[in-house]
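User: We ran a pulldown and think these components assemble together. Before we commit to crystallization trials, I'd like a predicted model of the whole complex to look at. Sequences follow.
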Amino acid sequence: EIVLTQSPGTLSLSPGETATLSCRASQTVSSSYIDWYQQKPGQAPRLLIYGASSRATGIPARFSGSGSGTDFTLSINRLEPEDFAVYYCQHYGFSPPYTFGQGTKLEI
Amino acid sequence: EVQLVESGGGYAQPGGSLRLSCAASGFNFKTFEMNWVRRAPGKGLEWVSYISDAGGITHYTDSVKGRFTISRDNAENSLYLQMNSLRAEDTAVYHCARKGSQYDLLTHNYKSYMDVWGKGTTVTVSS
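Assistant: Here's a predicted model for the assembly, 235 residues in total across the polymer chains.
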């Protein structure tokens, strides 16, 4: 089973700054299988990035994903007030379980 | 509009049962694989269960195997999660989510993701 470890647990930044969120896998995984989601209180999760680096439909260009092997990154440039939320990476591979990281809370 | 709407959540005693439903609209439901994902209070997202488009293949996270059953009715555009032998640790908001996929020419793999989510239904297990 792939275990995903996200860091930091909480990231405190201000609007206009750049956020860098990390997701480390317990073993080498295909970049095709790493996705990133945003979740705000009381709302459904929203797909941001799939296949490590492809932006989902309607996601602003300030969101970008990168990485390979065991280390993956979600970057958010020029933070907007609405970007403050919890972010999860997920390994949706060929076979289950389709594990999530524990999340990174991005706070002002 | 592509939409998923969950229902059926509520209160149950330990050992009790609940059946969650997820109504799909705005897309060809029978051609999409589906999942259930939950978020317990104060915790992160946890994948719970998967079902193939025709319903013949199902998967579960270890903690619910033998207790939960995922199913679907493609004629009714509906997904279900039968939850038996409920435990306090099953308390969570349960979301249904559609699986999307895209072929990756670089890796020759299919990129898989959950691209449509419902807002969730709350399950509380307590005596």
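The radius of gyration of chain B is 15 Å. That may be worth checking against your pulldown data before setting up trials.

User: Thanks, that helps.
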